Hints:
Elements (H helix, E strand, L loop, with lengths): L13 H7 L8 E6 L2 E7 L6 H23 L5 H4 L4 H13 L7 E5 L2 E5 L3 E2 H7 L2 H20 L12 E4 L2 E4 L12 H16 L7 H18 L3 H25 L5 H13 L7
Antiparallel strand pairs: 1-2, 2-4, 3-4, 5-6, 6-7
Helix pairs in contact: 5-6, 6-7, 6-8, 7-8, 7-9, 7-10, 8-10, 9-10
Amino acid sequence: MSHPPVHHNAPPGLRAWLDSVDASLEPSVREVKIDGVRCIIKRRRPGFLQGVNYVLRYVRALFLAVGCKVFLGEFPRPSVLLRNGLAHEAQRLSQLLEAGCRVPEVWWQEPNLLVLEFVGHDLAYLIRKEDSTSRLWLARAAAVDMAAFHARGLWHGGAQIRNLTLRDGEIWRIDFEENIGATLSRPLAQAYDLFQMLASLVSLRAVGDSDARTLGKLALDVYLESNPDPEVKARLKRLARVLCTVAMPLRPVLRRFPSRDIQGFFRVADILQPLLLKP
């Protein structure tokens, strides 16, 4: 983040386009081109089951919080975890934009609607379609950018590789609805970011096992070299211990199961395992 990001201007016909469509028929996320300018339309529609959905989300958040306390030593408050959604995303984007981060501008906001600047194709798409050399460059660039982002004391909260994009040769960040980092310590929130990036990187479709492991190991090594924060490394090491402990009894049973998520879990556990051998 050596220089301020360059943003595009909102299309002049944006308001007219929004008025012209039937919101009830629109998908939750849509990329559109208005007056030749790409933008992202995000919608949330409250329904009759909103109350029931909130209860289910609270129970899920509570289980996540208890698991985090048991295995990682911190208890993220469920009430804070549930402060997410489009309004929260708009607020975080505003804060990050003010800090000069490469995130999309908010071009329109109203209840249950957010229009965002398009900031390039996501890295998951690019890595799947590029050759080996370009894949390595993208993995390295993602790790360097996350290290610089974290060195400023920031956290993403949804740092999967699909939420990083490439525009004009630089990494941008998207999707800030998740709020887990607001209720964790800064080191654990950043270690969780790194875990999300690694786990999603090694689970990509159309990337073979060997290539996936190479990309994940490169990203981890580059991150730790670029941001050798001992507190983040300590939290990551504790997370690695949990993953490796769980992976050990499951591997003989599930190692041949073709699920990307299962194989990605074993890969990220293997990539993080060497941390346990280091002081």
